[in-house]
Amino acid sequence: MSIASINIQTAKSTSKAHMSRDKNHKITYLLDPDSQGNEYKTFLDSEKYLADAQVAAKKLTGRKMQQKAIDHFVQEAVLNLEDFHTVDDVEKVFIEFKKEFGGFEIFQIAVHRDEDLEYRPNRDIFF
User: Fold this and answer.
1) Looking at the domain assignment, is residue 117 inside a domain?
2) What range does the domain containing 78 cover?
């Protein structure tokens, strides 16, 4: 029996580099730094989408989008997956989310098979 979960939070400035495994973005917990098992799929350009949303908001309301809305516009979600799951499986999950809840657009999906799942840098930190 596997446990399913999703964690959604505001995307960080380093999120794109992390997802694409940009060589200039150092990740210290990779099992294999040159993993060929990762999968990627891009749908929309998040910067262009945000710019278009700002234009649409101004046109609709007559006001600029609030900075807080801009800062939290792009969210990232982390799903736990079994080894056999693919990018297409993740896409299906988000299509169902969009049907159920609306308001979701997928910019990019990355399935990382090269991360050490036991690495949790904050596991012993209590707030």
Assistant:
1) no
2) 6-111
Task: Please say if the pLDDT value at position 33 is more than 70.
Answer: no
Report the sign of the C-alpha dihedral through residues 5, 9, 12, 16, in that order. positive
**pTM given for the model:** 0.71
Residue 91, domain member (yes or no) = yes
State both tokens at 97: 């989310």
44-48 contacts at long range (C-beta below 8 A, 24 or more positions apart): 44/105, 44/106, 44/107, 45/107, 46/11, 46/16, 46/74, 46/107, 46/108
- Per-residue pLDDT, averaged over 14-33, amounts to 69
- For the chain, the domain total comes to 1
